[in-house]
Design goal:
The complex is a heterodimer of chains A (about 750) and B (about 160). Chain A is of the alpha+beta class and about 750 residues long. Chain A is built from 16 helices and 32 strands. In chain A, helix 5 (about 215-225) links the parallel strand 13 (about 205-210) and strand 14 (about 235). In chain A, helix 7 (about 360-375) runs parallel beside helix 15 (about 735-745). Helices cover about 30% and strands about 15% of the residues of chain B. Chain B has helices at about 25-35, 90-100, 110-120, 125-135, 145-159; strands at about 5-10, 15-20, 55, 60, 75. Classes of the chains: A alpha+beta (about 750), B alpha+beta (about 160). At the A-B interface, helix 1, helix 3 and helix 14 of A face helix 1, helix 2, helix 3, helix 4 and helix 5 of B.
Chain lengths: ~750, ~160
């Protein structure tokens, strides 16, 4: 069958998990019929525009709203003076608020680009014009532009992040080979192509929000708490999300404003951030720096690593970008010391961007391993194998599965790594300096409970419902595959509803946990529905199969007596005979995660029940190895990627076609991180200078070479119910160091700060 | 300055639409906010991302940098107008599906409109050429290799 042929295929198990199937939401997406947050037609909607501060620190003294209020079509101007406070909401980690009130607009300014006003008008054009008419007077105070600002200082130590394993200082001091280097990563931004925005509508005390969401239940909780209404009175709708990468997991200040304005006006309000506003309306990846000291034997066996790092945070909040997350566990390392400081600066509070922690952690470690390889004259891949960790050196627990060796072997084979000559500059093609570099990556398996409803209808179709979301991950498709496998029906007979907080609960689509936990929840609910069907078929007086056997199989959408005691009965025919229009089962996986029904609300609306990778008897992680080829123009010093091979172990792949797409997407975001992306901060105004997509460069099609990805994973029974490990964030981890190492191999120039540009190679 | 609207007639996907718009209203906002043709996406509103790509008289343009009034008297084609009247997908749409040339799908309407024009322009002769002539459409999910494969496949099918 071609991928587009919807013809049901009886008994083809090829529609179950593991099949390479096209995404079932694809047809809507290629027709422009997929409805994203701002696409929903809402009658009588007014348009809101946000105004952001132009100073980095101080106070809003006054906002003269006269001209704006008098402009055509203006319905409402919200300023810190005119905006009533909301109730404070608990945090996403589940902590109670420390103050009673939350003010989405404040007089106090802590960063350039903080929202200070909003204008609502009949049309977008009118609101935009009126917003430009606001006259803001500030009292300015000194600001800290970034962690390199002399006023920033060393920051604050973070004792819980400190690791002392063995005696790293002693082992380093006595090591035959010692290396010390500092690695730096800039502020990076998620920049999904769908900018942030929402539509808010009140009907009485019920609030409906159309907003892209990586976490329907968590965001609905925040809105409910802000407005002091029951959780059930908030309905968040997000069937399609135009990319998130960590940026769409929380309800944000502009969301509060839109809902507030809608309540005040008594009509729906649509609020869309402009692209420049998305650089400061929520946090991107924090800038980091780390000094690594590596001590090793002359053969390159690691003896000690000392890590001293820091990341930026905001002046009023804590964001941790844990720099030790890969360093602590990647290699067999007896002595490890890590300390990390947080440096408060005048920025929006940084937040999660794809693989927070693992990403900058791997950049430092995997560049340093390349430096060690050259220091001891050992091939970089051989050096890594020499330091292979047979168990997690940090927790002491065995790996659940770790097919990193297999990834190294498969990647090296496909790339042709064995032909590499060690010396930098040893590969040339005319004026092009060719470099081959490699690096490893890893991402932990995180686990939270999920909940799903599976319903079998009289026409034989199966419905799956959950509030989890699909931001391009393939959730719609793999959850359909999960149900199709249990009922042995073709994919075309399964419908999946996601992205609506009125559906069964789900935790955050983050931490690469969604596929593992939701396939488990859907599988459990589907099996429960199947058991009920079989029970009814065998016992109900109206069932044609009553008493024919002790059990029944479900095959090809039919109930099948095991030894041919009666002809197979279509599931739909049984329901018709029973006079039922459906059989349904709602199941959660709270108990599998050590939780009780009383934990339900908290478990799904906060991350408090997310289990770390070493909770249990094993240490559980996905693994990958990247091999890249770059070409550096000898005269221009321009860097071009020529090819990438990545082999990875993410356990069982529920749909290899879609998983490979996601791994490639991570790799491509890693290309951006390596060569293009970095917030440029004006030291005087603490402003993001390149706050648009022509100056903050994302990879374009022309920047991306051919990419081959190879799965070497096998099912991991400890990681998830159906054997998968995390995919979404794995692909980006290790890409930037692999590219940096390739640039070194091409040019002999070691660049330890991202992004690597022509200027670094002059 | 009071808002001044004029009556515009735009031919979109072969159908005339008559509506009131201000002179400053972009074609993108007119499509999305007034005509409810929301398949065309706003990714930056600055001509930097390509998500809003539509065709004017068969040529690709950025609808965020085009005023609605500039489209009068010209044939506008959006993603909604690409499939046949019977719902049959355009060859480029089919190729995008088959090659998994998208993930979140938000840039996809713009990518597809660009791809149709790219092939029509004769710029789909090689993978390198496709990469260059599709470089104006950003995809943050990183579907580029699959977009190239889809454009190639569609170009071969249409040749």
């Amino acid at each position: 069958m071609t991928p587009l042929d919807p013809t049901p295929r009886r008994g083809d198990a090829g529609d179950g998990l593991g099949a390479r199937l096209p995404r079932i939401d694809g047809r809507a997406k290629v027709r422009g019929a997929a409805s994203y947050a701002l696409d929903h037609p809402v009658e009588g909607v007014a348009h809101a525009v946000i105004v952001q501060s132009t100073i980095p620190a101080g106070r809003v003294r006054t906002i003269d709203t006269r001209a704006a209020s008098a402009a055509p079509g203006v319905l409402l101007v919200l300023t810190p003076d005119s905006t009533p406070p909301l109730r404070a909401a608990s945090t996403w980690t589940g902590e109670a608020p420390t103050q009673p009130e939350y003010r989405p607009l404040e007089h106090t300014i802590r960063y350039t680009g903080q929202q200070i006003a909003a204008v609502v008008a009949e049309t977008l054009e009118q609101a935009t014009e009126a917003a430009a008419l606001l006259r803001v007077a500030y009292d300015r105070e000194p600001a800290v532009a970034g962690m390199d600002d002399p006023a920033a200082g060393e920051g604050n130590p973070l004792p819980p992040l400190a690791i002392e394993r063995g005696d790293a200082a002693l082992a380093f001091a006595g090591a035959p080979v010692r290396l010390t280097a500092e690695y730096r990563t800039p502020r990076e931004y998620q920049m999904p192509i769908e900018p942030h925005g929402l539509i808010a509508r009140w009907e009485g005390d019920a609030l409906t929000i159309w907003e892209h969401s990586q976490w329907l239940d968590g965001m609905a909780r925040t809105y409910a708490e802000w407005f002091g209404i029951p959780f059930e009175k908030v309905r968040l709708i997000s069937p399609y999300i135009g990319g998130g990468f960590g940026s769409k997991a929380l309800a944000l200040a502009h969301g509060a404003l839109a809902a507030l304005a809608a309540r005040q006006l008594g009509r729906p309000v649509k609020l869309a951030l402009t692209r420049p506003q998305t650089f400061t309306a929520f946090g991107g990846r924090a800038a980091t720096r780390q000094v690594l000291e590596l001590g090793a034997t002359a053969e390159g066996r690691l003896l000690a690593i000392r890590q001293r790092g820091c990341n930026e945070t905001s002046v009023d909040g804590v964001w941790i970008e844990p720099l030790s997350s890969v360093t602590a566990l990647m290699y067999d390392l007896p002595n490890f010391s890590s300390q990390q400081h947080l440096v408060p600066v005048n920025t929006v509070l940084p937040f999660a961007k794809r693989a927070p922690g693992e990403n900058p952690s791997a950049f430092g470690l995997e560049c340093a391993m390349d430096e060690l390889a050259y220091a001891v004259g050992v091939d970089p891949l051989a050096l890594r194998l020499r330091n292979h960790a047979e168990r997690d050196p940090q927790s002491g627990k065995p790996w659940s599965t770790r097919r990193l060796r297999e990834a190294f072997a498969a990647g090296a084979e496909a790339f042709g790594w064995a032909r590499r000559r060690m010396a930098p500059g040893s590969l040339r093609e005319g004026r092009l300096l060719i470099g081959w570099g490699m690096a490893a990556g890893t991402y932990p398996v995180r686990r939270s409970p999920g909940e799903a409803m599976v319903r079998v209808l009289a026409d034989g179709t199966v419905e799956v419902a959950s509030s989890t979301s699909d931001m391009g991950t393939g959730a719609y498709t793999i959850l359909a595959q999960t149900a199709a496998a249990v009922f042995s029906v073709p994919l075309a007979q399964v419908r999946v509803r996601l992205g609506d907080s009125s559906l069964p609960r789900a935790p955050v689509t983050g931490g690469s946990q969604m596929a593992g936990l939701m396939t488990g929840a859907v599988d459990k609910a589907a099996r429960a529905a199947r058991e009920e069907l079989i029970g009814l078929a065998l016992t109900d007086p109206r069932s044609p199969l009553r008493g024919v056997a002790n059990t029944l199989a479900v095959e090809h959408g039919h109930l099948v007596p095991p030894r041919g005691e009666a002809p197979p009965l279509p599931i739909g025919a049984l329901l018709t005979a029973l006079g039922r229009d459906r059989i349904e089962a709602l199941r959660d996986t709270l108990s599998e995660n050590g939780l009780t029904p009383e934990d339900r609300y908290r478990a799904f609306t906060t991350v408090s029940s997310m289990r770390p990778p070493t909770d249990g008897d094993y240490s559980m992680h996905s693994w990958c190895a990247h091999f890249v080829e770059v070409a550096v123009d000898e005269a221009l010093r321009s860097i071009r990627l020529r090819r990438i091979v990545t082999a990875f172990d993410a356990g069982r792949l529920y749909n290899p076609k879609l998983a490979e797409s996601q791994i490639k997407g991570g790799i491509i975001m890693g290309i951006g991180q390596a060569l293009l992306e970095g917030g440029m901060i004006d030291p005087r105004q603490a402003r993001v200078l390149n706050n648009n997509l022509a100056d903050y460069l994302l990879p374009t099609n022309a920047d991306v070479p051919s990419i081959e990805v190879i799965s070497v994973g096998e099912p991991d029974p400890h990681a998830s119910a159906l054997g998968g490990k995390g995919v979404g964030e794995l692909g980006i981890v290790g890409v930037a160091p692999a590219i940096a190492n390739a640039v070194f191999h091409a040019t002999g120039k070691r660049v330890r700060e991202l992004p690597i540009t022509m200027a670094d190679l002059v | 300055m009071p808002s001044v609207t004029t009556l515009l007639t735009l031919s979109i996907n072969g159908q005339d639409h008559v509506f009131e718009a201000e002179g400053r209203t972009t074609l993108l906002d007119a499509l999305r906010e007034q005509l409810h043709l929301t398949g065309t996406k706003k990714g930056c509103d600055q001509g930097q991302c390509g998500a809003c790509t539509v065709h004017l008289d068969g040529e690709r343009v950025l609808s965020c940098l085009t005023l609605a009034c500039q489209a009068e008297g010209r044939a506008v084609t959006t993603i909604e107008g690409l499939a046949g009247p019977d719902g049959a997908l355009h060859a480029v749409q089919t190729a995008f599906l088959e090659e998994d040339a998208f993930q979140c799908g938000f840039c996809t309407p713009g990518q597809i409109m660009s791809a149709v024009a790219c092939i029509r322009e004769g710029h789909a002769g090689s993978e390198a050429e496709i990469r260059e002539y599709m470089a104006g459409n950003l995809c943050r999910c990183g579907a580029y290799p699959h977009i190239v494969a889809a454009v190639r496949r569609a170009a071969e099918g249409l040749a």
